[in-house]
Amino acid sequence: MIALEKLSRCFEGVVPATVATCSADGVPNISNLSHVYFVDDKHVALSRQFFNKTTRNVLENKHAMVSVWDPLTFEVYKLHLRFARSETSGPTFETMASRIEAIASHTGMTGIFRLLASDVFEVTAIDHITEHLLPEAPDAGAAAGAPELSPWMASAPPDGRSELWVLHRLSSRMNQACDLAALLDAVLDSLAEDFGFTHAKVLLVDETGRRLFTIASRGYDESGVGSEVVFGEGLIGTVARDRRIVRVGRMDSDLRYGRAVRAAVASGGGSTGGGGGKTALRPEIPLPGLPDAQSHLALPLLVRERLVGVLALESPHPTSFATWHEAFLGIVADQVAAGIERLAAADVEDPAAGKRPAEAPPATRKRRSFVFYQNDDCVFVDGEYLIRNVPGRILWKLLKALRETGRSEFSNRELRLDPTLGLPPLRDNLESRLILLRQRLAQKCPDLRLPSRGRGRFAVEADCELALEERATA
Asked: Which domains, and CATH codes, for the chain?
């Protein structure tokens, strides 16, 4: 019998699978499947999301047949199945549930479009169907009989590089990083150069422990630095909540399925409106993303089971991420998390760090108006939202000191000791807040900068006149 692990491309769902079942009295039923999951060399699992005809048939008659397609060669494999058990907990169930819940969150179907059980089947036989394919051309050359691989299929590293070569190169880059910004650049550069994953972002856990904020991204028109994701919200939020890798191919088909279920549930009517009262919405930064993304891979960044953040990749092609990417990039994610932890621990002031002379201000200085809203720690510049929360409080402290005393040199240590900033007593990730603040200033107010003055020290440089105002609420 054909080894199940060799059919991994067929289980990606690029071409939807179908399941055929039969009731005890001989009435057949065929349904599309949202997920076929490889369990081991003798078993697959099917997702049970509703108690439908397929479920009833399987409970009456334990035999079923699943048809899967290879998305590159269009070969068909018919899996003869015998029902073994249903699982409502455990690794298989939780992995499948995380994927389905991520899709449900995208379509507003959390709690409705969910996994009820993982139905595990023993694979008793596999039929390989190729009769529908055209015969091989006689001049196909030495590669006759082997399908030509699409340029966008999930593959090994380019240029004949081995996985170990790429891992060594990435590790070296990360070890040479002297700060968090350099570490993140090394990771995103390597993903693009060594794998061709040109659309990626890194999000870190904020001070509440319930949200992520984007600290770095590659390949998007807008960087999205500072954008936030709540735990459990969408694919990235689901990964953060469950601390589990989630890989999704053919995302458009899954979303269509979720939206169809949502439409069926909502067909009875109803309103999502509130009571008519006016609610002030906090300013938001859009999360960077591809409008035509087909494949997603999101990995939790963990240090001793503690979530540090999420590494998220996406692609416009439906088979960009394969099973082996989960294992390989899982190693990369572990190294990234360890690197963030290492640099956070090394973030201490260097007493030998010298001060750079301040540059002479330009002849014409632009006036910048900053407003700090006390109710939610938001900072606006020239009427536009800039930043909030801990980075907002840090910026306001620095601007007030610069205006009131002329002081422009600061240390990370004094920020940590300032109780008004609200930094956590342990693992405050101050450096990540400063990176976020620097990047938002570069986008919205480039004539105000926070250059480094050596390890653990930085300065405030302003090529503008500062007008500061505090308000209780917006």
From this structure: 4-131 (2.30.110.10), 164-261+285-345 (3.30.450.40), 366-471 (1.10.10.10)
Query: Quick one: average pLDDT of 22-29?
Result: 91
- Start-to-end CA distance of the chain, whole Å, equals 68
* Beta pairing class for 366-373 and 464-471: parallel
Q: What angle do CA 389, 390, 396 make, to 5 degrees?
A: 90
Between helix 323-345 and helix 430-444 the angle, nearest 10°, is 100
168-172 contacts, C-beta under 8 A, 24 or more apart: 169/194, 170/194, 170/332, 170/335, 171/335
Residue 243 backbone zone (phi > 0: left; psi -120 to 50: alpha; other: beta): left
| CB proximity list for 85: less than 8 A, separation 6 or greater | 119, 120
| Most confident of the following: 11-25, 49-63, 187-201 | 187-201
Query: Model's pTM, two decimal places?
Result: 0.71
Residue at token pair 């999502």: 272
- The mean pLDDT of 245-273, rounded to a whole number, is 59
